[in-house]
């Protein structure tokens, strides 16, 4: 484990234009290099891989580990280019037979998590088309506007997806007053507003939130009647998957729904301009509950075996794993490690610091990891 | 997650919840914050204290307490009981009068406000004309005389506060009826004193501040006598028989004026300045009290030499050539002297001096030679030194209880017992009980009313840690929070001042004869001595105490005094961390060599953390003889049997410079913020001054002030912002150890359970260590071993505030030694154990040993509130006798108290308890194991609350005016003993002699036939040796305590 770690470091400075590729198929490794500037076509790369691994008569899928530790597919020119250009310094390529790849999928956390097969999943007749279209779960979720169909047009529900991104959430909130339409006319009510954006932060870079947007809900809970500190605590408690419903200060960029949405959605049809009670928490149940849960944090559990007096830090022989996985008794021996473990462990910049896992890099139901 | 949003729809469960939970704030313990008035009713024998926030509190016999709150948030200035009645009148600083009464409802007295009234003068009169300075309730109870700043005395009729304008005694009316020679002097101004003639209700005395005192005949509307002094009048005392008036003055002197109806007194016959000849401060109140022996008591407040002792708060007592100036550590609000209540009696015979100081109530026994202080059974000054932490232990075994009381009574020898006791019996058991008895029987002179509250079902201890390094043990079983024992850790350390020095510094022949009284002492020699964490094992008598400078003391209860060296060990929590520089305080220096310890808890091991940061968590396991402690740098485990450190673990993040450097680096930012706030204040002051129309409104000035105003508005309008950012591993103080927990559970695998230590940090990390404790027979030979078994990083990284292991039945594991003492069922080791981790944001249940998440309750994500305190408690049903449920009691940062069920983590009930702004109140909260709790409502007061329907400690008392009307102290016996006997139910005991006993004991007695017989036999045996009735009482007490142990053993 440590050998590969050091090797990749020494190779880093040989040639800046060349990208070292470490390709793994089963238990075998092949190393070759590509030109960073001109990586070439995916077709050529596929042939090269098949050739170097002496794979014949079988279709394979090619994946790579991106900087966040996610296993992402290489199946067209674009993502091949992206893979090569973002490799730093080593491009780790994983090759699986198509049949085996059925059971394992790409995407966020796929290195460590068993994902439930979704209905969208492509079944047997996949070779009908030559065009490889990435499946929804093959993509990393990004921050987005959600629940457009059920919210009043004046409101916007934003999901800030912080996965694997080192960017800070990067915004501030403040107290303020907003004007509401009440039966007696306009009335002023206290509200919570976004007061500032941190340049380069997630909130700013997504462009979905803006200064002076009024915060109406945090993860399905209305903020009306709550203090600034309470709302702050709620947002921080949900920071791993923050869903904020806002009333944008700039109402010109609102999503305009077609008549279909207005007519068909029972919830929104009765929403008038003066109605400000949002479709409440149950709205979020539109998301598959599994989705909600799986996006939550999973606690990391380390199992230590050494005398702590001798080794104050988590000892190198200790096992790290995440919630939910039982430890296979024989897993202690390094020989039985799977590729996944090795990949994960090599991602650690500092193996001495046991907890500096990239956030989200290790998630629920993953196998054990040896440090 | 959503399932917790649904309200419970199960009607059976809702019904059960009503039987289990109920929120009550039951009683306030301690001393009222900022007292401002004192009242006393000699007939009811009830004391009243008013506060600056408008609360009035009444105290009678122990357990008899009432509290009322004025609707107005104004300070109570005066309190007057109507003579012989259960009614009292309060005067607030907004010049309003309020009539309160104690009414009996459902067998229990309640304090309620009946009427309120504001005196209105004639139209057009100045407000000062009706500003009340003195209130005199007339003995007829129909009239109230109100002296005012204008010099007029107004009369109002009770209870409706009807102003009787035709009976107003204006200063002009008095002036007209004075002889010519005094009429020319402006002798009036405000009324300073109003008194009724002790024997003749038709005469009242009016004292004006310029020095004129007149005796006014109410019937004839004429001046009977007048006295004129050259000094400003402060107060007046009318002697019992009405023949002598003593006036006190602003020059520090007092005068005696014999009253005789025919003669006029042009000059005072005798003027006395007790602390002259140099200028003295005013004597503000004086008592002149006669005794049977003949020599009077003179008791006065103030009058000290202005230059050298002008800053002292003194009350002097002069009697029979003896003079003592009692020197109080805080301002004296008011005082009164308890005397013979019967107005017909010939002599005052004062027996106690009751002084209400700003921070404590001091009672002095005037009958015992030397005038020793009496220890009050309530109104304890909790904040003698600031409270830094508290710890509650429920259901103390009787044996430990007696030993603590015995240790405490030996500390209180300087207190008056107010009742003489026979010498302690020789048998050790009986001697202990004797000490106990002395506490119980100590006669308390203010004993009106009857407490009807049931006897406390168990003995509870509340331990408070203080800034000066002391730990105080309070009896928290009942309504009266009462000091049992005080432990000082100072002796272990070398400090600048020796504690004995200050006591010896006072010379004998010094003048004035000052004597320090009271326990309030806010000055701490060394802030490092402060106690931060306490952990008491009630079964073994082991106590662990940890403080501000990283000191951890392990103490053992010893009934004998001892002299031994305290073993010192240093725990280096940083180990091989490099580049560290601690900028905080140094560690305390331990006293070398053997140290003398008085009986009680005696330290035998001192562990000092290095760096000496505040100890933030502490746990003691008396069965395994281990103590665990944690600071902001890490935690350690110490074997106090072998006196050996087992391990230390550094929890510090290497980048956490703030924690590395210690508290000083935080001061910088504090300084900065202080500077900013001062600037803001100054700016606002400057601009507000400018805004006032001071000078000619010039154009330039106008413009500038407007600019300033807008500038100020900008400053004020700069919105409070909150940054929204996820926690990261790089945050500061993540290594801060918040909680430590010992458990015997399945840590490694599900087949073998083993001792384990759990630690939770500020950064959301939980460390679990498997311990190997050698069996008892080899305990001294083999070392205790520990190895890290688990490390859990909560991904939300919120501080871990509680760790608990639930057994197979989802019941929290019992305390150490609880099972060994047969007081708890042994935990279920068959089913799978579960680990509960409470962070500030979430509750999470994990299955052991795999630590797989089972359940969670995301409190902060749902409500925006964060957990501040959490405690496991069991709740009994008020309907079903044996039904119990275990739940978590939780206090949030919003001041709400919630009950969260175990193990399903469903919120049960929620009550708002503390204001969310009251940060110190929230931080001081401590839960008991029975669903009660305490928190500080002021530096000196604990509010007691209860979440349980079954465990409720609240005052239930009866004050009956009919019974107490003719209730007076008889003269043939030394007062207090007699009086107390009548208030109590004179029980069914054999000898017919009056007795008093603690409620616990009383309960045991009446229910146990065998014990009664034992008492009788012992009584007979004792009677032979000493015939005094007091010793009989002692013997009863001895047996009372014995039978207490008998009944608890069964």
From TrEMBL, chain A:
GO biological process: cell division; centrosome cycle; establishment or maintenance of cell polarity; regulation of cellular localization
InterPro entries: PAR6_homolog, PB1-like, PB1_dom, PB1_Par6, PDZ, PDZ_sf
Protein name per its UniProtKB record: Partitioning defective 6 homolog gamma
Start and end residues of each PB1 domain: 18-98
UniProt KW Transit peptide keyword: no
Top-rank lineage group of the source organism: Eukaryota
Family statement drawn from the similarity comment of this UniProt entry: Belongs to the PAR6 family.
Record-linked CDD domains: PB1_Par6, PDZ_Par6-like
GO cellular component: apical plasma membrane; bicellular tight junction; cell cortex; nucleus
Low complexity composition-biased segments: 258-277
Pfam families xref list: PB1 (PF00564), PDZ (PF00595)
Residue span of region Disordered: 258-297, 350-371
Subcellular location: Cell junction, Tight junction; Cell membrane; Cytoplasm
Keywords on record: Cell cycle, Cell division, Cell junction, Cell membrane, Cytoplasm, Membrane, Tight junction
Origin species: Physeter macrocephalus (Sperm whale)
Biased composition (Basic and acidic residues): 362-371
Domain PDZ: start-end pairs: 157-250
TrEMBL record, chain B:
Residues covered by the Lethal giant larvae homologue domain: 273-372
Cellular component GO terms, alphabetical: cortical actin cytoskeleton; plasma membrane
Entry keywords, A to Z: Cell cycle, Cell division, Cytoplasm, Exocytosis, Phosphoprotein, Repeat, WD repeat
Residue ranges with Basic residues bias: 683-693
Location in or out of the cell: Cytoplasm
Bias kind Basic and acidic residues: ranges: 967-980
Molecular-function GO terms, alphabetical: GTPase activator activity; myosin II binding
Matches recorded under Gene3D superfamilies: YVTN repeat-like/Quinoprotein amine dehydrogenase
UniProt region (Disordered), positions on chain: 683-712, 967-1002
WD repeats: 457-475
Coiled-coil intervals: none
Subunit structure comment from the entry: Interacts with GPSM2/LGN, PRKCI/aPKC and PARD6B/Par-6. The complex is enhanced during mitosis. Interacts with DCAF1.
Protein name: LLGL scribble cell polarity complex component 2
Organism taxonomic ancestry: Eukaryota, Metazoa, Chordata, Craniata, Vertebrata
Gene transcribed to yield this protein: LLGL2
């Amino acid at each position: 484990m440590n050998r590969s770690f050091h090797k990749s470091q020494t190779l880093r400075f040989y040639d800046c234009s060349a990208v070292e590729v470490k390709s793994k198929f089963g238990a075998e490794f092949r190393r070759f290099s590509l030109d960073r500037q001109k990586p070439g076509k995916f077709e050529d790369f596929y042939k090269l891989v098949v050739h170097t691994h002496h794979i014949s008569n079988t279709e394979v899928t090619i994946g790579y580990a991106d900087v966040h530790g996610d296993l992402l597919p290489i199946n067209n020119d674009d993502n091949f280019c992206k893979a090569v250009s973002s490799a730093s310094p080593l491009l780790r390529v994983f090759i699986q037979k198509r049949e085996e790849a059925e059971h394992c999928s790409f995407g966020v956390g796929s290195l460590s998590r068993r994902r439930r097969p979704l209905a969208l999943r492509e079944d047997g007749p996949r070779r009908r088309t030559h065009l490889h279209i990435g499946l929804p779960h093959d993509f990393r979720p990004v921050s987005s506007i959600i629940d457009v169909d059920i919210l009043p047009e004046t409101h916007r529900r934003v999901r800030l997806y912080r996965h694997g991104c080192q960017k800070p959430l990067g915004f501030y909130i403040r107290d303020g007053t907003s004007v509401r339409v009440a039966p007696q006319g306009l009335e002023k009510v206290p509200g919570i507003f976004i007061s500032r954006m941190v340049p380069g932060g997630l909130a700013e870079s997504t462009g979905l939130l803006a200064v002076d947007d009024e915060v109406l809900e945090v993860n399905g809970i209305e903020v009306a009647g709550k203090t600034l500190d309470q709302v702050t605590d709620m947002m921080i408690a949900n920071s791993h998957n923050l869903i904020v419903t806002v009333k944008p200060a700039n109402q010109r960029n609102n999503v305009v729904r077609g008549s279909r949405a207005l007519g068909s959605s029972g919830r929104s049809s009765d929403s008038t301009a003066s109605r400000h009670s949002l479709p409440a928490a149950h709205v979020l149940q539109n998301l598959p509950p599994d989705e909600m849960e799986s996006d939550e944090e999973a606690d990391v559990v380390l199992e230590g075996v050494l005398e702590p007096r001798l080794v104050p830090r988590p000892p190198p022989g200790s096992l790290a794993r995440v919630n939910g996985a039982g430890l296979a008794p024989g897993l202690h021996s390094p020989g039985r490690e799977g590729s996944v473990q090795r990949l994960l462990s090599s991602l650690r910049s500092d193996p001495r610091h046991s907890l500096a896992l990239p956030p989200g890099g290790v998630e629920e139901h993953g196998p054990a990891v040896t440090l | 997650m959503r399932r917790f949003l649904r309200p419970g729809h199960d009607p059976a469960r809702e019904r059960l919840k009503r039987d289990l939970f109920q929120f009550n704030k039951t009683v306030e313990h301690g001393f009222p914050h900022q007292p401002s008035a004192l009242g006393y009713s000699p007939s009811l024998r009830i004391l009243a204290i008013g506060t600056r926030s408008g609360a009035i509190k009444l105290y009678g016999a122990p357990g008899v307490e009432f509290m009322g709150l004025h609707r107005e948030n104004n300070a109570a200035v005066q309190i007057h009981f109507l003579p012989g009645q259960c009614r009292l009148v309060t005067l607030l600083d907004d010049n309003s009068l309020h009539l309160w009464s104690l009414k009996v409802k459902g067998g229990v007295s309640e304090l309620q406000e009946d009427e309120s009234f504001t005196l209105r003068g004639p139209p057009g009169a100045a407000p000062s004309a009706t500003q009340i300075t003195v209130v005199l309730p007339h003995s007829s109870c129909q009239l109230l005389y109100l002296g005012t700043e204008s010099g007029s005395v107004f009369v109002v009729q009770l209870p409706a506060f009807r102003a009787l304008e035709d009976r107003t005694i204006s200063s002009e009316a008095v002036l007209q009826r004075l002889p010519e020679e005094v009429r020319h002097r402006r002798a009036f101004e405000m009324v300073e004193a109003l008194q009724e003639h002790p024997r003749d209700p038709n005469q009242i005395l009016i004292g004006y501040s310029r020095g004129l005192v007149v005796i006014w005949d109410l019937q004839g509307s004429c001046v009977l006598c007048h006295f004129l002094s050259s000094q400003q009048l402060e107060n007046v005392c009318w002697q019992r028989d009405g023949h002598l008036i003593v006036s006190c003055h602003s020059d520090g002197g007092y005068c005696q004026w014999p009253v005789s109806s025919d003669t006029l007194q042009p000059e005072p016959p005798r003027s006395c300045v007790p602390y002259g000849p140099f200028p003295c401060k005013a004597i503000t109140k004086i008592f002149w009290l006669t005794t049977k022996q003949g020599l009077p008591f003179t008791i006065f407040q103030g009058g000290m030499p202005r230059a050298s002792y002008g800053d002292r708060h003194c009350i002097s007592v002069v009697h029979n050539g003896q003079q003592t100036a009692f020197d109080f550590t805080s301002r004296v609000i008011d005082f009164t002297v308890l005397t013979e209540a019967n107005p017909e009696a010939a002599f005052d015979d004062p027996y106690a001096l009751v002084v209400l100081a700003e921070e404590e109530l001091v009672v002095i026994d005037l009958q015992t030679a030397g005038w020793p202080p009496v220890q009050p059974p309530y109104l304890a000054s909790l904040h003698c030194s600031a409270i830094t932490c508290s710890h509650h232990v429920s259901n103390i075994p009787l044996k430990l209880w007696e030993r603590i009381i015995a240790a405490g009574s030996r500390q209180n020898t300087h207190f008056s017992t107010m009742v003489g006791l026979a010498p302690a019996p020789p048998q050790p058991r009986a001697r202990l009980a004797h000490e106990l008895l002395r506490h119980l029987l100590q006669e308390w002179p203010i004993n009106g009313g009857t407490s009807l509250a049931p006897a406390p079902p168990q003995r509870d201890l509340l331990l408070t840690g203080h800034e000066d390094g002391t730990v105080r043990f309070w009896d928290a079983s009942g309504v009266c929070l009462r000091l049992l024992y005080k432990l000082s850790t100072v002796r272990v350390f070398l400090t600048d001042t020796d504690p004995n020095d200050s006591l010896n510094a006072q010379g004998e022949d010094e003048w004035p004869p000052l004597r320090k009284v009271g326990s309030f002492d806010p000055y701490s020699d060394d802030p490092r001595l402060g106690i931060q964490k306490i952990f008491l094992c009630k079964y073994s008598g082991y106590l662990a105490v940890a403080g501000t400078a990283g000191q951890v003391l392990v103490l053992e209860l010893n009934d004998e005094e001892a002299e031994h060296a305290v073993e010192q060990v240093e725990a280096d929590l940083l180990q091989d961390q490099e580049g560290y520089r601690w900028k905080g305080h140094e560690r305390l220096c331990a006293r070398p060599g053997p140290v003398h310890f008085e009986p009680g808890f005696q330290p035998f091991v001192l562990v000092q953390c290095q760096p000496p940061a505040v100890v933030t968590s502490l746990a003691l396991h008396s069965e395994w003889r281990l103590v665990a402690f944690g600071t902001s740098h890490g935690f350690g485990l110490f074997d106090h049997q072998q006196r050996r450190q087992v391990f230390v673990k550094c929890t510090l993040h290497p980048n956490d410079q703030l924690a590395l450097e210690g508290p000083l680096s935080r001061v910088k930012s504090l300084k900065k913020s202080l500077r900013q706030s001062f600037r803001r204040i100054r700016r606002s002051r400057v601009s507000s001054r400018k805004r006032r129309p001071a000078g000619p409104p010039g154009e330039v000035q106008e413009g500038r002030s407007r600019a300033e105003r807008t500038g100020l508005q900008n400053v004020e309008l700069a919105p409070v912002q909150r940054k929204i950012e996820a926690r990261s591993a790089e945050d500061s103080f993540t290594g801060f150890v918040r909680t430590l927990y010992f458990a015997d559970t399945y840590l490694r695998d599900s087949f073998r359970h083993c001792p384990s230590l759990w630690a939770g940090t500020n950064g959301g990390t939980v460390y679990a260590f498997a311990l190997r404790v050698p069996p008892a027979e080899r305990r001294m030979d083999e070392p205790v071993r520990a190895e890290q078994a688990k490390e859990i990083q909560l991904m939300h990284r919120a501080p871990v505030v509680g760790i608990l292991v639930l057994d197979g039945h989802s019941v929290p594991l019992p305390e150490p030694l609880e099972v060994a003492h047969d007081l708890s069922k042994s935990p279920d080791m068959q089913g799978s154990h579960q680990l509960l981790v409470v962070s500030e944001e979430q509750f999470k249940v994990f299955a052991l040993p795999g630590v797989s998440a089972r359940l969670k309750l995301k409190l902060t994500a749902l409500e925006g509130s964060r957990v501040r305190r959490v405690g496991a408690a069991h709740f009994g049903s008020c309907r079903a006798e044996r039904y119990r449920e275990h739940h978590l009691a939780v206090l949030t940062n919003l001041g709400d108290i919630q009950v969260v069920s175990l193990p399903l983590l469903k919120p049960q009930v929620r009550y708002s308890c503390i204001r969310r702004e009251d940060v110190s109140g929230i931080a001081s909260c401590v839960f008991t194991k029975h669903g009660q709790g305490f928190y500080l409502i002021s530096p000196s007061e604990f509010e007691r609350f209860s979440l349980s329907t079954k465990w409720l400690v609240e005052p239930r008392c009866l004050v009956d005016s009919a019974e107490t009307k003719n209730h007076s102290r008889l003269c043939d016996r030394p007062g207090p003993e007699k009086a107390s006997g009548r208030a109590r139910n004179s029980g069914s005991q054999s000898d017919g002699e009056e007795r008093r006993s603690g409620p616990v004991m009383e309960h045991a007695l009446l229910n146990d036939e065998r014990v009664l017989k034992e008492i009788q036999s012992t009584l007979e045996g004792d009677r032979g040796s000493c015939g005094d009735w007091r010793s009989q009482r002692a013997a009863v007490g001895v047996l009372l305590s014995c039978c207490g142990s008998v009944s608890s053993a069964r």
